[in-house]
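User: Can you help me understand a structure? I only have the sequence.
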Amino acid sequence: MSRAERTPVNPAPWQNSAGNGNRGDQISTGYDSATRLSADGTKPAAADPAVANPADETGETDETTATGAASARPTTLSAVLTTVIAGLLIGSVATVMHANIWYVNESLWLPWGLLFSGALVWFASVWCGTATRRVWAAAVPGLLTYVLSWGFAYLKNGSALVVTSWEAPIGMVGYGWFAVIFVAVMAAVIVTGRYIVRLRRQARD
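Assistant: Let's start by predicting it. Here is the structure, written out as tokens:
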């Protein structure tokens, strides 16, 4: 056998590049086919599930956020119990405190108890409304305070807690107490309503 017959013939450089090109085409073709849907409609497994199913991840996040927002809001029963208990406690304290008057002299007096009790009812009403995220909850403490005050004033003659008369400062304060309760309730409802609207806008954004 001659030397020419024993010497292996090396492929030409363009043959190697063509071979590499065919191999690259096969790899890319296999990758493309793996990413396409199969004939029966099932989706092939991917290396990164978060990249393969971004919609599923977004849906799961939205569902988690909605569940957290729903669980943050108390139930209706809890809201009723909270507002009723707070209304009875605050209403009793405010009704007792409203008649405190500071007499500067015989003609000058300051109804500080009326101002203190009105602020107390307003704070309690706003807390009930914002804590329960319900507008009607902001009105319950004030309404219960009004009912208690009316009962103390008119269900028993000669009541010492709520006196209604235009002849003495304590009687004027008694009439003013009903007006203060009304103003406190309306202000608490407005504040609570704006608070809930702001929360809903933030949730939409």
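Now, to help you interpret it: Confidence is low (pLDDT under 50) at residues 1-5, 12-40, 43-52, 54-71. The beta strands are 102-103, 109-110. Let me know which part you'd like to focus on.
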